[in-house]
Amino acid sequence: MRRIRYGVGMSLNGFIADHDGQTDFLVSDSTYDPAPFFASIDSVIMGRVTYEGAVRQGMRAYAGLRNYVVSRTLAAADYPEVTILRDASAVAELRRAAGTDMWLWGGGVLLASLLAAGLVDTVELGLSPTLLGGEGTPMLGLDARLPSTVPLELTHHRAFPSGLLVLEYAVAKGAEA
């Protein structure tokens, strides 16, 4: 079965976007190579809010990946570059299909719902040495609610010269929000 890997960059105080939906506060590091990550996935799954933000910034799809957006409201005809999925059961079907790992990008509300359905295998964070002031989008979003504690097991960590920390956690087996 394919793994679903939640991966996101965030500030030290837990924000994945600023008040304007921008992520330019995230620290990059010239010694971090994203190629192994992208070589390990064949698909990206986004929530509607994340996808609409990407479209506003001019990005409609990741080249070379199958692009999925989970939304009950978007019309598929308006977004031919992605496949619209209506709910977590459609994500579960993708997980059972042949292929490599899938990247769950952004979307804290979607993360919470997929955790509750037992569909997320890892949580992978790029923690920037930045404290974001003012309003912003927290990792789990304003409307995301975890019904219970979700235990995580640290599986990998790496510190970069810029202060960027990459943390990888496995969602504990049997852990469902």
Attribute tags:
8-stranded mixed sheet, single chain, alpha/beta, 177 residues
Q: How does this structure look, described?
A:
- With 177 residues, this protein is an alpha/beta fold.
- It is 18% helix and 31% strand.
- It has 4 helices and 10 strands.
- It has helices at 35-39, 48-56, 88-96, 108-116; strands at residues 4-10, 15-18, 41-47, 66-70, 83-85, 101-105, 122-127, 136-138, 152-159, 165-171.
- The strands form 2 sheets. It has an 8-stranded mixed beta sheet with strand order 5-4-3-6-1-7-10-9. The chain has a two-stranded antiparallel ribbon with strand order 2-8.
- Helix 2 (48-56) links the parallel strand 3 and strand 4 (66-70).
- The radius of gyration is 16 Å and the shape is globular.
Helical/strand content category: alpha/beta
* Neighbour order of strands in the largest sheet: 5-4-3-6-1-7-10-9
The beta-strand count equals 10
Average the pLDDT over all residues and give the rounded result: 92
Q: What is the ordering of alpha helices and beta strands?
A: EEHEHEEHEHEEEE
Largest sheet: 8 strands, mixed
* N- to C-terminal distance: 20 Å
Global outline = globular
Strand content: 25-35%
Query: Which radius of gyration do the C-alpha atoms yield?
Result: 16 Å
Low-confidence stretches: none
Helix content range: 10-25%
Number of helices: 4
Secondary structure: elements and pairs:
Layout: E1 4-10, E2 15-18, H1 35-39, E3 41-47, H2 48-56, E4 66-70, E5 83-85, H3 88-96, E6 101-105, H4 108-116, E7 122-127, E8 136-138, E9 152-159, E10 165-171
In short:
The protein is of the alpha/beta class. It contains four helices and ten strands.
